[in-house]
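Our working data are protein records whose layout never changes between entries. Getting from the letters to the tokens is the skill we practise here. To make this concrete, we reproduce a full record directly below:
***
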Amino acid sequence: MVEQITSGIKISVETFFEGTFYKNYKINFAFGYQVTITNQSKHTVQLNARHWTIMDALNDTIEVEGDGVIGKKPVLNPGDSHTYNSGCLLTGPIGAMRGYYKMVNLNSTKTFNVAIPTFKLSAPYALN
């Protein structure tokens, strides 16, 4: 698990390998990750958007942006946590992801970014 705190918001990420499958005659490696966002600040915040950088050892790095996370824009009061699961496909057995969440402090209406620490994606047999 990797963790990072930005402006009182703690991001924790756990990863897992889900397996391989063929798509368009090419092998793909499926990875899942669970993110927990914990509000350790004194302010109520809302997650509005996300930005990911996905690095695939056998492919180009791609950038992905979107509203919320898995269709939600969670509001976190002080002490609250929000956990969700998601995943990505890579063309190789090793990669990594990092990014940030665009959040707003609902008390002051100021927006800020919360860093998502870099986490590794690797098939268990890839490093042997």
The two ends are 21 Å apart (CA to CA). The longest strand covers residues 9-23. The chain has one domain: 2-121. DSSP finds no helices and nine strands in the chain.
